[in-house]
Amino acid sequence: xxxxxxxxxxxxxxxxxxxxxxxxxxxxxxxxxxxxxxxxxxxxxxxxxxxxxxxxxxxxxxxxxxxxxxxxxxxxxxxxxxxxxxxxxxxxxxxxxxxxxxxxxxxxxxxxxxxxxxxxxxxxxxxxxxxxxxxxxxxxxxxxxxx
Length: 147
Description:
Layout: H1 8-14, E1 15-16, E2 19-20, E3 24-28, E4 34-39, E5 44-46, E6 49-51, H2 53-60, E7 66-76, E8 80-89, H3 97-107, E9 116-119, H4 133-138
Parallel strand pairs: 8-9
Antiparallel strand pairs: 1-2, 3-4, 5-6, 7-8
């Protein structure tokens, strides 16, 4: 990559010694295979712990009453950020915020589970079906504000 067209500041922010930094977070297993875990921009730092939204989303969608989920960081006065989930329930199912949070607590580390859940009929999507998380965080004025 030579750079972003007519955006030298953006180009400088992603280039490092001639290498393009994608912003992807990956891990390598014992066999040498790489797995993309999440994006740097999506990383939530809660009380000094790294929380990867994708990991939380993958657990949330295993709940039988959850159709789709997106996880974002929201500001928190003492922890820096907190974990918030936006969930589309499966049509015809009943699920409360307290029930889903309790279910998550049983399956996740104490610093990872969502502290709040907002149920939605839909999530903002790109034309290719990717969730637009920045639109979700922009609407969190009722929280302590976007992280």
